[in-house]
Every structure is written in C-alpha cells, then in structure tokens.
Please model this.
Amino acid sequence: MATLLTNCTVLDGTGAPARPAAALLVEGERIVAVGAASEIQVGAGVDVVDLGGATVVPGLCNLHVHLGLTHPGALSYSDETVPQLTLRMAANARAALEAGVTTLRLLGEAAGADFALREAIGQGKLRGPRIFTAGYAIGCTGGHGWDGGRVLEADGPAEFRRAARSQIKLGADWVKVMLTGGLAGRHEQPDTSQLSPDELRAVIEVAHAWGRRVTAHTGSAEATRQAIEAGLDCVEHGYQLTDSLIALMVERGVWYVPTIVVTRSVEHIASLGVPDWMIARVERMAEAHTRALEAAVAAGVRIAAGTDMLPAEPFEGTVASVAELEHYVRAGMTPLRALQAGTRDAAELLGVGSELGTLEPGKLADLVALDGDPSREIAALRGVRFVMKGGETVRDDARSGAAADRGRAF
Ligand SMILES: [Zn+2]
Model:
C-alpha cells in the first residue's frame, strides 16, 4: 500500500527550510521519497491525498506522560479497577494520537497496563501512539507519588535493585526514579531529597547494566547534581536548576524534559478539583520553574518535550502537548527549535533518531499536517488536521470531517 501526500509544504524537521510545492511518498510504514511534487513519479494504485496546501511536519512526541493520570482530590480515581484503568489508558492513548502525538514515553503506570497497551498498539489491535515505558516509577516509602498507585516503594539499595529489575523483567524501556518531592504529595516539598546516595547508585547501576537509561522526577538542584554524578541520564521537571547544575548537564549531555505546563496555570490546576495545598505548591514553584527553563534554553541543554499532563488534555485553548512547545518559545527557543524538541530531539532522547523524528526517506511515516508554518509561528501546531502513523492515516479532517469531540481527554 502506497500513499502520496501532495499539494503540501514539507517542513522535514532536520533544520532545512520548509519546502513548498512538495510531495511525500509513503510505502508500507515508511517514507520512501520527499521532494518537489513535480519530481516524484508514482504508478497506478497509489492513494493520492491532496493536503490542500497544508504544511507536513513530523508527528509529535510527548516524553513525560501518565496515561493513567490521577490527581489528589476529585480525580483520584480511588475506586478504579484494573480493567477500568486499562480502558481509560487506551482511550487517552487514542486521543493523543488523534491530536497528532505519535510517540509517547510513559514514566509511571500501574498494574502492567502500559505493557499490555504497548503490545496491543504495536500489533495493530488498538490505535494509539508508539509507546516507550518505564512501567512503575520507583520511589522510597512515602516518597513522591506513593499514593497515586503508579510507584513501587523501595528502601535500601537491595530493594531499589529488585524494583528496577522487576520492571525490566516486564519489558521496561526506561527506569524512572522519584528523587525528590513534587507538586502532588501532601507530606513533602519539591526541593527536598528523598533517596539516599546508595539507593540512587544501586538503581542506576542495575539499569545501565541492563542497557536501560534512568530518568528522575526531581525538583532539587542538589539532589539532581548528585544523581547526575551517579550517572543519571535525564531530568524531569527540574523545578530548580542552578547555573552550575546546568553547566554540568551540558557537559555530561544530560537531557531535560521540562513539563513546564504543570506550573503555568493555577486556574487550570484548581479546575481539576485538587486540594488547596497543591494549588499553593504550583503557585510557589512557578517562577523558579520558569527561570530553570529559560536558563536551560539559553545554555543549550538538550531539551525534549514532555507535559506530565495528558497529551490531548485541553489547555490554554489547545492541547497540552502543543501548549508545552509554545512555552519553550516564550522561554527563548526559536519556533524551529521548539518543534524539534517535540520531534527530532525527542526521538534522539529515546534512542530512535534513525527511525523517527524527521521526515526523510527510510524513516517511519509518522507525520501531521496543519495550516501555517510552525517554524515561523509555533502556534500553527494548534491546527493539526491530518495525522499519519506508520503509513496509516489515522485522521484526515478533509475526508471525514472534524469530529467535535476529537482530542478530548478524560
Ligand atoms: Zn509525572
């Protein structure tokens, strides 16, 4: 099965300028040609899709997601059964894909539902993004996220080793640790450390020995520095990043996934029915989080996009995955660099840069089409109207009409 996307501009995500009057030929699950429409010849039997002048860009990646997201308070889902959780995750995955997010990294899910979902999507039984997952996150007793049901509690290096191995046994692509408190924990603060050095060393050693990389939920500059010195590969949130820590991240090539949207809106957090202490926490961390992102952008830290909100969650008039990239531009990125943080650079973080992240012959055909040019105006990503994953068209508003509830999260 071959598809020719035509009457479009291609912004391939490599950094090359947008190419107008272009076409893109897909055979099976891969891109086989990208170029001037006049130069791409196709035979009979090719499905020709006229994109009506849209711009084609790589499918978006969101590298900090919990498909089974819960919050303290109204959205705690405390009575949810595993079958209910699994179906909710599948629906959230599908909503993400339809919003243009073709790849997810899950950093804390429960009951093995993420592994089952990854497999079902991979086998084509369900529609959803490509999934990379850490399984359960690993934290200490009472540590960040313990009450959300998506964290394995461990104490001492032996238990941290066992916890990491137990998730790798199930098929974890990454290992996620809870290094410090966060926004959503009653008895903690985002800038205080929760793991002891021997626990941290043990979990990183095990993951690396098995060829997995480790990422950490962290809000403390000192805890992050110690973790990087112990071999940490990636920093989530980074509510507090000092200049010397940023310099260390650049020197070691450590990745940063900001999830900046989580501290952007007190009103949004309040609308989720969370307790007052969590609202106050968001308010308290917002400014430091802004400064951390701005400094990381200015220093050239390797940044990939992640939201810690549902990828298609309605936020600031768009979906969280797009709002996150818009905030990267406000923090100093060019629109092209912000787009790459959600495409090429994210694929590189995942170690699949040769397969995903840009629109080049040989790569998997994960792409979206929209009006406008996001390398000039990042908000153009709000207008996604066509989504293809692995050569399969999963959304085409011109052919099917825009569904009113598309992209809805719940
Ligand atoms: Zn998270």
Notes: The CA atoms of residues 138 and 311 lie 23 Å apart. The chain is about 30% helix and 25% strand. Residues 64, 66, 107-108, 308 surround zinc ion (CB under 6 Å). The mean pLDDT is 96.
